[in-house]
Amino acid sequence: MRVAKWCALLTACAWIGSGCGNSSGGRCVANEQRSCGCPDGSQGFQTCTPEGKAFNECTCAGPDGGSGGAAGSTGSGGVGGESGGGGAGGPFDGGAGAPPDGGSRDGAGGDGAIQTDGSPDATPCTSTDTDGDGVADTLELTTDSDGDGLVDFADPDSDDDGIPDSVEAGLGRSMPCDALVDSDNDGAPDLRDLDSDDDWVLDEDESSGCRLLGDCDASGVADIIEVAAGSDPTSASSEPATPEDFVVVPFGEPSQTTDLRLSSAFDAMDVYVLLDTTTSMQPAIDNLRAELSNIVRRIVRGDSAPTPAIPSIPRAWFGLGDFNDVPWSPWGTAGDRIYGFRFDLGGTGNLTYGNVSEPVDNAGTPTPPSAVSSILAALGASGGGDAPEAMTQALWLASTNQDYRAVGGGEPWPPNDPPGSGIFDASEWRKNCADPTRIGRACFRPSVLPVFVVITDAGTHNGPTPAFDYQPPPIGNVNGTKTYVEVLANVNAIGAKVLGVPVNTGTPGQARNDLVQVARDTGALYFDSVAAGEVELVGPEAASGAIGTEVVRLVGLLESAGVRSVTTTTTSYSCTGGVDCTGCTGDGVPDPAFSNFIDPGTSQPFDASQLIESVTTVDTTPSLYNGRDASMFFGVRGGVTLTFRIATRNNVFSADTLRVARVLIDAHTPDGHGLGGSSGSRTLSLILPRSRSLP
Fold first, then answer.
1. For residues 300 and 313, is the Cβ–Cβ distance under 8 A?
2. H or E stretch including 668?
3. What's the CA gap between 65 and 509, in Å, rounded?
4. Start-end of H helices in 108-251
5. What CA–CA distance (Å, rounded) separates 624 from 495?
6. pLDDT tens digits, 143-186
7. Sign, Cα dihedral of 169, 171, 174, 178
8. Does the model's pTM come out above 0.85?
């Protein structure tokens, strides 16, 4: 089988053309030639038009001169004339395998005797037809092509495909020695070819009108794809919904490639606000409370009014935590908390957690999760001692469920639990996620980008400015806190980005300097087209009344121009049904149950990933990223479309019937955060055609 020819068939047929292949009914391959019958019983030829729309009329010769052999034939001379001397050669030279007419390759006249292949020493054809199928025994041969115990010349169906040799021998034949039709020019005449049109659908599996057509209904979708998808290849009104997601992977053939375009956008994001609630932050808290609903709506739906516009992040979730400092002097005051993620609202003892949660759908409008709204409504500014606060400690705690215990000059933090017992129960204090698959005390979703939005007007202890570090006892009277190196290790381990909103109260210069460095150290960068470089996702020193606007702007920049690297994962597809089986990179819509066919060799569902030889990057628009290697784009600038080339090859499974196996190609960051939603995830249906080998 010539796979290059099959690829050409798909190019001509599938999705972009109106028909292809050696065909009848008004469609053919441009400039293709085939044999045809002439009125006097001799052999002529037809040529397909350059547009591939139809064959021209049959070209015939008179008794004294033959027409040329069809392109692809062995003989090049004309059909033998009526006299013993033969007619003059025709104008066309032939190639291997077709009309058994006399004549030499230079177009000279034949000798009048019809021969099987045009060569001088070939056995002359005799009209004996043992099985009465209209094909001379000389042409049917003495082999047993289908292994049924009958030699071909005595077998009315030589290839056992259910189509009689009398039909597959070809139209226009009037004598037993007339040339056999080889519709796909592969060297095997149709009566010994299980796939006469080379479309990877066996003749016996095609309707009678489709046997010689690669696209029977001229719909632009190849028949093999229609059969695999369950649509009707004879009706243009019955077509697969996504034919581009089907790839033919024949057994034992060379690699084939398919290009996929995948999105690098974050359609899902966990936005967790870490809010400084020390005394100077009350105006900022008030503004955040007033703008919370607008923040959620504009991030989820997007907003085209600002410049740059805010792109939508349809599956963004939101959470809220706060921070002060250690609860003793000189760093903080009694009652301060290093990190708040659960809150006793109203002093009832019923704890409310600020975990990242899905927005509430209020008549089609996304509104804040109820817990986030309740917590923010109850928060007020208080406490704090010196200027820097415990921001880095809150980042460490939110990113993990590991134990933490700060001790020093007053009540340890976290406080003894239960209150007054004198016993610190770390496991009780960490109870925050009902779902054990979630990440950290903030309860980030797996495979979704965690984003911290830190709002503060102060620098941070144990951060990028060494002068602000807690000093060890006895000078600083603090033990158990985490160093800046430890904080970065925790945050970067989950691939989180830290965006900064410095507020122009307190010590704003210190706040912004520290936030800029934290953003850079966690890769929270965006490509600034004006600066023509990467810039930290930290705002200017914002007025307290602009906090909500700044939060939306920074998250929008992260989505539209945030720097990220993009690679892919290939997995064999399966689905239990009733859930979104493309996970956090999907469209959020439940998918039907599906499992690949059982592999007889393993008794398990077939692993379709075996058929993916490689997934490589394609250099399409270099201005969209900083560089690439074979498998990854580096420094991609926002939510853009990238091209990956999928190489498929099947050297592991020879199908005894047409099989379809599915494989999932997902775009994601190197940290495993899903990208693009349904546009960053493609489920390919890999078609394994039934083997065409004869016994």
1. yes
2. strand 659-668
3. 99
4. 137-140, 165-168, 223-229
5. 22
6. 888 888 889 898 888 888 778 888 888 877 889 998 898 888 88
7. negative
8. no
